[in-house]
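Follow-up to my earlier ticket, as requested here are the two runs.
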Amino acid sequence: TVKLVLTPTGSSSNELAPIEIGVGINSEPAVIGAIGTHKRGCYTAVGDTVNVSARIESHTKIAGQHLLYSESTRVALSEIPADEGEVTAADLKGVDKPMKLFFLRDA
């Protein structure tokens, strides 16, 4: 369980500023597993899929959306969301060709 405690800073009121995050989802094969030693190890994911997911997450700021997902994720869905929108071909750094990205209108 993660608990986030916020305290107002530099403000005369007790009102807290909202926290905004972006989420990028890409559904492709990736290499995942434990790396390192038993004393200093971690579980991680590497590969192009992970890099593209990070680029999609960065694009949430440009697109003005909190959650974007790739066409491969859309294909993997069992049902296409009724409130889905499409970002016209996004040029992502490190990706050869523009990608279709999708978002949920209420997210």
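Run two:
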Amino acid sequence: SQSRAMAKSLGMDAVSANAVHDLGGFDAIVNTAPSPLVLSYDGIKNDCVLLELASPPYGFDAALAREKGLDYVLASGLPGKYAPYSAAYIICECVKNIIKERENDKA
């Protein structure tokens, strides 16, 4: 996807939820999907930070992550709290693109 390509261009790794299997090499894992992810948390480095940006029901299992000794940070709504105008602009552009893509699909 375009978002994954952008992440890679910024030196990050991006994987889809169904491709999450080996997360042992990451210093931080950021979730943006408001849907539970099936993770065992085994093999994730002890100093890895799990950053939850999604809305409820969230993606990470906070209790299991903490049980495994991982640093779990709940930061849902972060873009809107710290950069509301930029976040609103990006969401607006995204919605317009989705509408345009759907119109093109109908044509």
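The only thing I checked on run two: The chain has a mean pLDDT of 84. Let me know what else you need.
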